[in-house]
Amino acid sequence: MFVSESSAPGRGILTPGSTESRHLTLDLRVRLGAGRPVGGSLRDMADDSSDGITQRIARTGEDALGKLAQDLLENPLISGAIARAFEAREKAAQAQEVAMGALNLPSAADLERITRRLRSVSQRLEGIEDAIDGLDERLSGLGAIATLEVRLGHIEEALDALRRQVADLHQALPEAPAPLPREQERLQVTAD
């Protein structure tokens, strides 16, 4: 790491009462694959800006981290290592699943599949319960119909009793001429 003060005209050590600002350059060399140095500059802390020092430091840190991450991702060695790590993770997951299958233990995928099927069965069971509730309501309505059938039976018995009484009264009456069938009835016409 190298720190140097700028030797440009008008820049240098501040004297009391001068209005010039001091500018420091930070040269941080980090070898990343291609060996490109990462550099930046620091302003004098007495620099009055609209941003607070914490915001400036945060912004500078974010920029540096973003550039470092970008450089790391562009590096074929790093990106290859990340790809190999993901492949290894996938192979380890497959090996774990095979081992758990050999031990007759359920894997996470098996548990997830069983959970989905259990939810499906639960939803179907709720549908069946709703249908049974509907049938129960209809059967209770049929109970009311059964009550109506009992009432109709009582009415029919009462009608039969009335028929018997009318028949008894008919037999008790003196013999009257038998009524003519309707087809033989004639209308009487009167001359007015």
Protein model, in words:
The chain is mainly alpha-helical and 192 residues long. It is 59% helix and 8% strand. Strands 1-2-3 form a three-stranded antiparallel sheet, with no helix packed on it. Among the domains are: 24-74; 122-170.
Low-pLDDT runs of 5+ residues are 1-21, 30-34
Number of helix segments? 3
Mean pLDDT: 76
Q: Tell me the series of helices and strands, N- to C-terminal.
A: EEEHHH
How far is the N terminus from the C terminus? Answer: 144 Å
Backbone shape: rod-shaped
Strand runs, count: 3
> Could you say which structural class the secondary elements and strand pairing correspond to?
mainly alpha
Share of residues in helices:
55-70%
Spatial arrangement of strands, main beta sheet: 1-2-3
Tag the structure with descriptive keywords.
192 residues; mainly alpha; three-stranded antiparallel sheet; 3 helices; 3 strands; disordered N terminus
Structure summary:
The protein has 192 residues and is mainly α. The chain has helices at 53-74, 76-102, 108-172, and strands spanning 2-5, 23-28, 38-43. Among the domains are: 24-74; 122-170.
List the helices and strands and how they pair.
Layout: E1 2-5, E2 23-28, E3 38-43, H1 53-74, H2 76-102, H3 108-172
Antiparallel strand pairs: 1-2, 2-3
